[in-house]
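Recap from last week: sequence in, structure out.
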Amino acid sequence: MQLNATIARQIVERAKQIIRYSVNVMDEHGRIIGSSDPNRLNQRHEGAVLALDDNRVVEIDTAMSGQLKGVKPGINLPIVFQDQTIGVVGISGEPEQVRSYGELVKMAAELIVEHQALMSKLQWNKRHREELVLQLIQGDGLSENQRLAIAERLALDLSQPRVAAIVQAFPTQGESLSAEHLQRLVQLLEQPEHNNLVGISSVSMNEVVVLLPISL
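Predicted structure tokens:
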């Protein structure tokens, strides 16, 4: 998992709801990718580099800030995801004034990172489930080993006998069939508790393919 500008903006916005001090988010190279002060974006923050190199909280007072590049007084805390330091969140201000907010802002940042990682995984799973359905039907594009590898990551048993069904969707009078309608239909048909595999047909955009598990 890597920090990007989108996640950094979310961290800054969340921090602004917690404290009144300026907040910066730095990536794994110590570059500012999110900030309450747009003028500081893309600058290298040497305080963050210290926090990354030593994997520790770095407090910078007024005297120390004059010796480092791109730094203001404040506190810088590593952002950790799955035991790896992926960036730094910094709060500007005299350390004795902002120290008490450090762990709170760090926790908020790490919760946002965990949420984004979970959403990315869910999207990956959904996309590859649909792709796997089409590959199983068409029988081309991916090798057997590739299909098995995807199925294993999705915790799917390809040896389970299944029957294929086609569901056709038609718009109501005066409306058009949108991609949102089809995605909603896919969600209704997936039935995770029944282990259905569902994908939008590549032949007709108003058809949904369902592979239903059966017992022989």
